[in-house]
Design a protein that fits this description.
This protein has helices spanning 8-15, 49-53, 148-154, and strands at residues 19-20, 33-35, 38-40, 46-47, 55-59, 76-80, 84-87, 95-97, 103-106, 113-115, 122-124, 134-138, 144-146, 170-174, 180-185, 197-204, 216-217. By secondary structure, it is mainly beta. The strands form five sheets. It has a six-stranded mixed sheet, with no helix packed on it. It has a five-stranded parallel sheet with strand order 7-9-11-13-17. A two-stranded antiparallel sheet has the order 1-4. The protein is elongated, with a radius of gyration of 22 Å. 22% of the residues are buried.
Length: 218
């Protein structure tokens, strides 16, 4: 996007949840244009919070600081390290193991054993048929359990909230020890007649508390 850093269109996009990647740089490196000795940011790359987490960004100052220019603007370079998607696509019991990087693990229907490995991993669930999985190495503060599609399949019009635990669709119950949890689903929430039923088992790697909305994507 080509605009002033304080422009209304840019602020609207940022207020909607996008991040201006140039703001990840030190303040003295945040410029892409020089007008009469005044360094300015006129070029912007915006990204969602998920992309921003796995991004690298820089402005290559090859024009604004020199009289001999190819352009009057410096090029901006953004690199996104997208996680690999590993999908068992099993209809029964399966074993899925991630790699050393950031993985997206989708067990699918059936009781699967999922191990993310190193990196910031995401365990994705799309329907109640995915129940019975065991996540073996969830790391609080790094990994996420993604229930976006699962909740959309249960709630007409989709889930519009931000915390399905507080909204009584998801419940996290500590199991046999401090690193073992049962994640349970109430398919019709607080207004229906259903009850919480066990959905997946989660074993933590290290310390932490799974019973926090920050460990999930709703």
């Amino acid at each position: 996007m080509n605009d002033y850093q304080f422009s209304n269109p840019l602020n609207i996009l940022k207020s909607a949840g996008l991040t201006d990647l140039v703001e990840n740089l030190p303040e003295n490196e945040r410029y892409t244009y020089d007008f009469q000795g005044n360094a300015q940011v006129l070029d912007h790359v915006l990204a969602t919070s998920n992309l921003n987490t796995n991004s690298e960004f820089d402005v290559v100052h090859i024009n604004s600081e020199f009289a001999d220019q190819v352009s009057d603007h410096d090029p901006s370079v953004a690199r996104f390290n997208l996680p690999a998607i590993r999908d068992t696509s099993t209809t029964g019991r399966g074993t899925l193991t991630g790699g050393p990087g950031n993985d997206v693990l989708i067990g699918g229907p059936g009781a699967d054993s999922l191990t993310g490995g190193a990196g910031n991993d995401r365990f994705v669930y799309t329907s109640l048929r995915d129940q019975g999985d065991t996540i073996n190495d969830f790391e609080v503060g790094k990994d996420k359990i993604v229930f976006t599609q699962l909740l959309s399949s249960l709630i007409p019009g989709g889930y519009s909230g931000t915390d399905a635990i507080a909204d009584k669709y998801v419940q996290v119950v500590q199991g046999s020890n401090s690193t073992n949890y049962s994640v349970q689903i109430d398919a019709d929430g607080p207004t229906g007649g259903d009850i919480f039923r066990p959905f997946i088992t989660v074993n933590l790697l290290g310390t932490g508390n799974l019973n926090n909305a920050s460990n999930f994507v709703f």
